[in-house]
TrEMBL record, chains A, B:
Keyword presence, 4Fe-4S: no
SUPFAM superfamilies linked: lambda repressor-like DNA-binding domains, Periplasmic binding protein-like I
UniProt keyword Repeat present: no
SMART domains: HTH_LACI
Domain HTH lacI-type: 2-55
Sequence intervals crossing the membrane: none
Name the UniProt record assigns to this protein: LacI family transcriptional regulator
Domain of life: Bacteria
GO MF, one example: transcription cis-regulatory region binding
Length: 325, 325
């Protein structure tokens, strides 16, 4: 492979001039033309290790998510990667699978200079491994230190779900969901839901479980039966779409018709792919806007420019087949 | 940040000894203990640029796919990333969005030493940019040069779809699909389907469109009406799951009941996430096995070991709600 020295030799200029050219410096027109011709003739491509060593930038960003195999996270990764291209940066994909060791291993990558920064969406207690000196932006979760956070307006989303269920004719509502103890965004969803119900004098049940997914799933069949049969609930807001699909399956097993007998609204509003729309009524998170804000914010942190500590983006209602409206 | 020199100074050993230690070389026990203590005291972490420069390995692999925002590709990326962890390698995610310039840009990354190799799933004609000297493994598509390819047994899958439709009671079958002119795997699906029908004397229609997705989608409503009304088809094999969802929507619009009047089988068998099973009957590609084979094969190519040129993996039938069996 051709080196910078080969280019200089062929162009009959100094190595310094070629270096200056490669880094966007101004040169005489004659010199520029000679260098460009030599680069073309030699099919020269910049050695990125050497560049990384010099500028301390790798132009790679790590995206830390629980799993890419999930419509919300895959849509998010899609838009973040597209956004990073505007900054000539690449995305390293890190699936933590909610495994603490995996998360810590990925975060330590940044210290080793392997990436310029992190965009993290994590529900573990990794606070002690994260210092605010490391370029990091958090999505969907506040850290204890001063780390910029991008999130949807979960509180407003909870209220919007209650409002839409009532508008569509539901009389008695329930919230169903679980979250990790570090997960404040899902708590905001039920708080917004609860606040709306209280303000408007609407009867509502709150089922919120703090713990692990599989523990909650074991309890779910009984919980769903209880609220439908004993409590006569006819409008359910579920904490996220994935859980909503599980609730829908349980309703079907109990011969409850959706949306005729019970209406269901999820949260996320993501779809499987660009071409397959979701049939679930849901509060949609503004995924393209979250991606754009996270990337912009991280680039600012890396370049030591000012970045907002909290960015809260508005949600919208996506009507599907699980509500009457 | 502490450097290798700082470690050597504190441990009172030579820089060479520290370097030897970091690269797994044997040293006197006393020296090893002193270096380990110094590394701990200084919180020293290896500078990866320098390592990359020395060994010419970045321990990163680029995965080139049309879009991560799709259940098949997100499941594939999930397993490839997990597999790469066994080789201490990271995954760089590249969504080409079927854009030729994007594909070429990503492939040129490898030349710039930014990644150790590529795993590519592409439907464009990028042959001229790919030379077999570059560590690359292809999924789902043969390249003209000698590049190792991992794929599902598409031909057998097409036959299996026809067999399952007949077993479930369908009498007259159709294949519906499209593919790019460079896409041999989708062609194998209808060829396998066709071969099965011919061998078993089954009446069948083949609708295969070579071209772009949106062009095909414009024709789809008319095609579906034709085969259902004029041809009385009652079993449809669709080239992939995404297309199958579109066909299902059109059948619903035409008040055709699935699976009562018409049965439908897709191809891919991917699901939205670990926890949401798919309701579509489909020929499932062995995604975890494809991921494992692609990574193993690429590592062998990078390390200049022998790698099989073609790996064809068996498919299975996933019965869902769109067939009677």
């Amino acid at each position: 492979m051709a080196s910078i020295k080969d280019v200089a030799k062929l162009a009959q200029v100094s190595v310094g001039s070629v270096s200056k050219y490669l880094n966007g410096g101004k040169l005489k027109e004659k010199t520029t033309i000679a260098i460009e011709q030599a680069i073309k003739d030699l099919n020269y491509e910049k050695n990125t290790y050497a560049t990384g060593l010099r500028t301390n930038r790798t132009h790679t960003i790590a995206l830390i998510i629980p799993t890419i195999w999930h419509p919300f996270f895959s849509e998010l990764a899609f838009y973040i990667e597209a956004e990073l291209r505007n900054y000539q940066s690449k995305l390293i994909l890190c699936n933590t699978q909610n495994n603490y060791e995996n998360e810590v291993a990925y975060i330590s990558m940044a210290r080793q200079n392997k990436v310029d920064g992190l965009i993290a969406l994590t529900y573990s207690n990794v606070d002690e491994y994260i210092s605010s000196e490391m370029p990091i932006v958090s999505i969907d979760r506040y850290f204890s230190e001063k780390i910029p956070t991008i999130m949807s307006d979960n509180f407003a989303g909870g209220g919007l779900a209650a409002e839409k269920l009532i508008q569509a004719g539901a009389k008695k509502l329930a919230f169903i969901g679980y979250g990790s103890i570090y997960d404040n965004s899902t708590r905001d969803r039920y708080r917004g839901f609860q606040a709306y119900c209280q303000t408007h004098g609407i009867e509502s049940e709150i089922i919120y479980y703090e713990g692990r997914h599989h523990e909650f799933n074991e309890k779910l069949p009984e919980l769903v039966q209880q609220i439908i049969i004993n409590k006569a609930v006819n409008g359910i807001f579920v904490v996220n779409d994935e859980q909503a699909y599980e609730v829908l399956e349980l309703l079907q097993k109990n011969k409850v018709r959706v949306p005729e007998d019970v209406q269901v609204i999820g949260f996320d509003g993501s779809q499987q792919s660009t071409n397959i729309p979701s049939s679930l009524s849901s509060i949609r998170q503004p995924i393209p806007a979250i991606a754009a804000a996270a990337v912009k914010c991280l680039i600012n942190v890396i370049e030591k420019k000012e970045a907002p500590l909290k960015t809260i983006l508005p949600v919208t209602y996506h009507p599907g087949a699980t509500t009457k409206e």
